[in-house]
Write a structure and sequence with these properties.
Length: 417
């Protein structure tokens, strides 16, 4: 008798176009970028852009500004703690929808705030939106996107923040002074529209890991609970995420304040700075391409060197036009690409449960965002904001010592290898 050879599974083909004319993975990429734009570019980082208006209208001190900034990240951390377990059970769609509604209601509360209490409540709710929305896209990409395109799509989604910032800057310029409420109402409307679009595109249901994607499994079973995060390759990833969150939170909270204090509240330099930063940050869509070509180690080193220099420029010369614009041009692409770097790096370390692993990564990022504004606000209250920014630049440079392992840098987990 002839033995019967098993028929190999056919290779995964690109998804067929939908009724809109776009393949599902491109629809996912575009709606994902839009969701990250509103949850990060508007709901989370809009606080720093409109900080001068908030301080004038609500009478906030510099130290209180730092505490409010840290409090706005508390909801973000709570969301991350819940997402890790929920996404594996329910899938990305319901969690991203929750994040979008938090952004919608939170930004609306800020627009209607009558005092510091309502303002803080709106900022905390809006700030939690990014915690709900970001990590589930790792799972969505793993389900929808062909292996050869995963790193590029992951990097592109993560840089949606740049497009949100690029829109928020001109809007802030047009709505200066008492018009800030109108800007936040626009944020709320755009957040709602983006949430409805993602509800139609994202997959739902439990994630089923592939056996080939579980290199850390023992006896065919992947580790559960906190043990799934206990991997040597995850240590530099978590350290980098912590410092990335700290530097980013400080910059978003205090950059405009530093420039405004140096040049005056009525100067157009602050909105111009924000807009240039967002436009420069759109280059972050090439993050996946850069990682494929140069590896995680080189990209990580370049991004954190650029971010540290950008923060230092504001600490040294916040009133200088070349320094301010130079900081924006450096920080925009480096920060936006940094989020894509963490997403791709996390997928390589936790391929069997992408969203759950990425939730752990973003949790450490959230710790940095929680500590950063409050700590630097305290330093700024005692020694000045410029000293706080220079300290932040030094802390950012420490990430250069937490580079990815060479085998992780050279891996192609996201591409299915």
């Amino acid at each position: 008798m002839h033995s019967i050879r098993p028929v190999p599974a056919p290779p995964r083909l690109p998804s067929p176009p939908s009724r809109s004319g776009l393949a599902p993975h491109w629809r996912l990429g575009l709606t994902g970028m839009a969701a990250i734009a509103v949850t990060f570019g508007f709901a989370r980082y809009g606080y720093g852009l409109f900080l001068p208006e908030f301080r004038e209208h609500f009478g906030l001190s510099v130290s209180l500004v730092g505490l409010v900034g840290s409090a706005s990240y508390a909801g973000y951390l709570v969301a991350l703690l819940l997402v890790g377990g929920l996404v594996a059970r329910f899938g990305p769609r319901p969690l991203v929808v929750v994040g979008g509604m938090c952004a919608t209601v939170g930004t609306a509360l800020v627009a209607l705030a009558t005092g510091p209490g309502t303002l803080t409540a709106g900022l905390v709710l809006a700030g939690s939106s990014s915690g709900w929305a970001w990590a589930p896209y790792s799972d969505a990409v793993d389900r929808v996107v062909p292996p050869a395109l995963r790193e590029r799509v992951t990097g592109a989604i993560a840089t949606g923040t740049a497009f949100g910032v690029a829109v928020a800057g001109p809007l802030a310029l047009a709505a200066r002074g008492t018009g800030w409420r109108f800007a936040w109402l626009v944020f709320a409307v755009l957040s709602l529209a983006t949430t409805l679009a993602n509800a139609r595109v994202l997959p739902s249901g439990p994630h089923v890991p592939r056996p080939a994607d579980a290199p850390y499994a023992r006896n065919g079973t992947a580790p559960r609970g906190l043990r799934r995060f206990a991997r040597r390759a995850a240590v530099p990833l978590f350290a980098t995420a912590l410092l990335y969150g700290l530097v980013g939170a400080v910059y978003w909270a205090f950059a405009v304040e530093a420039v405004t204090s140096a040049v005056g509240a009525h100067s157009p330099l602050s909105p111009l700075f924000w807009t240039v930063m967002g436009l420069a940050g759109t280059a972050g869509v090439l993050t996946g391409h850069a990682i494929v070509r140069h590896g995680l180690r080189r990209v990580q080193a370049g991004l954190f060197a650029g971010m540290s220099c950008a923060v230092a420029l504001l600490g040294l010369a916040p009133g200088s036009l070349p320094a301010v614009l130079g900081s924006a041009v450096l920080y925009g692409p480096c920060f936006m690409a940094g989020s894509g770097l963490l997403a791709v790096w996390s997928h390589r370390v936790f391929p069997e449960q992408p969203s759950t692993g990425f939730s752990g990564t973003v949790f450490f990022l959230g710790l940095g965002t929680l500590v950063g504004p409050g700590a630097v606000g305290a330093v700024a209250g005692a020694y000045g904001l410029r000293a706080g920014l220079l300290l932040t630049a030094v802390l950012g440079a420490l990430a250069l010592a937490a580079r990815p392992a060479r085998r992780v840098s050279a891996a192609r987990a996201c591409s299915g290898a």
